[in-house]
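Entry 14. Structure prediction run on the chain below.
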Amino acid sequence: MVYKVLLSIHILSAIVGIGATFLFPLILAFPQKLKELQLALRVVNKGADYPKFGAILLLLTGLGMGAMNAELFQKGWYITAIVLLLIAVLIYVLRILPGLKQAIDHVSGIEGDDIPESYVDMKRGIKPYMITASVIDVIIVLLMIWKPF
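Output returned:
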């Protein structure tokens, strides 16, 4: 019963954490005017804790399930998923969040309708990290489903 509760929390935290990381690039892709961009950045900033919270819960529940079933620590897919999760968290915390903070600070005081080219450059700078984190998240989910090795 405890294992099923941990598994349920694990799945829900994946939805919360990974879902937000997939949603952020979409939210930031649509603004055409500066006010829309400022709103989109505020929304993303408000949701920035969800991936961190989700990742912590994913790690704790995953390790908890491993503690209940020590055989998991001998499975390559399990160890790989933990390592990939830690890499994704580092990318998020060290690259994506600072880039978003810089973008928010940059556009918050600007007036007018046009999105500044300097923001577009900032976005280009963090986009590869967002894509990388999303690809890692997909790989983790696939590892959890397929358990290939």
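The first helix runs from residue 2 to 29.
Filed with the rest of this week's runs.
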